[in-house]
Amino acid sequence: MCNIFIKREILFGYFRFFLAFCVLLSHIQNNYWGINIGVVSVIIFYMLAGFVVSGLFHKIFIVKTHPFYDFFCDRILRIYPLYAFALVVCAIFVFISNYGMPHFSWKAFFGHIFIIPLNYYMFFDWSVLQSPKSELNHLTWSLGLELQAYLLLGLGIMFKRLLWLLFGLSLLVFIASVFGVLDSDIFGYRLIFGVFFIFVIGYFIECFLFRKTKEKWRYFWGVFFIFCLFVGFVFVQQKWHLVTLGVHSREVILGVILGILALFCLGKLNKKIKIPYNSFFGALSYGIFLTHTPSMWILDYLGVKQSTSFGYIFTLLICSILLALIGIFTIESPLQSYFRRK
After folding, report:
1. What are the residue ranges spanned by the domains of the chain?
2. I need a surface site. Which of 61, 65, 134, 173 has the fewest CB within 10 A?
3. Contacts of 72 (CB under 8 A, 6+ apart)
4. pTM (two decimals)
């Protein structure tokens, strides 16, 4: 049986599945209780990514001859197989159905192949769908951001002063976006410049919880400072309304606060609770993140109109899970097994 079914690990797989479901819900309806829960979930995903990278550092950077190369290959192997599968599903569907009036170009092709360019869609046109204008899978801008974060984290892990410098600069960019100096949507959420510090927080938390290093308490105080800064800002903003928050600033701040609490809590539970199928749900969460967009298109094409009803949400979730399972068992799992045997 595939090992994603039998491993017993920390609860992060179930947590990631819940976050992916929140992203799915946010694309049915943007606003729940005055908050875009999809943005909050994406921010926590960023922090989880940094947490995972810390574990990889101790597995790869310490024992490998070419750690940076092996590290980035590991991340590509994690991201690319299901991404490519979802991309092919989207391409085949829009080509056959003419959904969204697709227009394929070499520019868009290379943008989608290299992923990172998709993160800069606000400056360059990578669109394939023309009505409305969209990439083949409009969520993949965040994967481009994630790949950039992995490159910077890899460098930061090797050069700790650089990591702290990038951490501080990124935090300053985010603060500037909150106070309206920079566009809050672009620089405070969608581009690496204002969110890299969130990945670093995840890295710091993992180091503090699981690594016996001289710097672990420095990492803890770094995270504690961010937590107090953000919580303090929320209280001050509620009482005195210092600034009119831009697009997504509230969600990013909330995501950072909740993410720190969640990672510390789940990290502490690691020694107490071990449950099955965690890895499977973790893999499935990434699949749902990628496949719920083509699933929405297919349902729309079949005449199933988007709504917040239980029936639509359940149908969309099942379609997304089925597509994700096909990708996991036919593409991702065989490829990962093959390359990790080599």
Report:
1. 38-273+288-298
2. 65
3. 150, 151, 154
4. 0.92
